[in-house]
Amino acid sequence: MENSTSTQQLLEIYYNGFAKKEGWEQVISDDFRFIGGDMTKSAPAVGKAAYIEVIKRFSRAFKTMRVKEMIVDGENACVIGNYDFIFPNGASINGDVAEIWKAKNGKLDSLTIFFDTLTFDRNIPK
Question: Which of 1, 29, 48, 63 is the most exposed place for a label (fewest CB within 10 A)?
């Protein structure tokens, strides 16, 4: 991926692949930083491999996803992703996730997400 790839283009590649649950990894930087899933922990998961593992687990919880809104400002972006979740207990819900992105050197470099963690806690067995 060349450095000239815009943040908008990177996100389009990412979300097209993410919705299919394949092909999104190509736009993630090797030292990617991810914060989310547990807002009580401010330390990021660091590295592309660590993020891929997070997404393997998360991908089991959603059936479909679509971008509801995307705002891009240079290397910064905010995306509202809308997900259809199906939990192991059989519960199905639709929910939005706020996703704050930073791009760097032609790759997506970091992501912080915000969502209703209480609903996840109530529907995923411990």
Answer: 63
pLDDT tens digits along 71-102:
999 999 999 999 999 888 888 999 999 999 99
How many of the other CB atoms lie within 10 Å of CB of 39?
Answer: 12
**Which residue type occupies 13?**
I
39: which residues sit within 8 A by CB, 6+ positions away? 114, 117
Which tokens in the block code for residue 26? 């190509």
How far, in Å, CA of 7 to CA of 11, rounded? 6
pTM of the model: 0.87
Burial of 89 (C-beta count, 10 Å sphere; 0-12/13-18/19+) = exposed
What's the CATH number for 7-123? 3.10.450.50
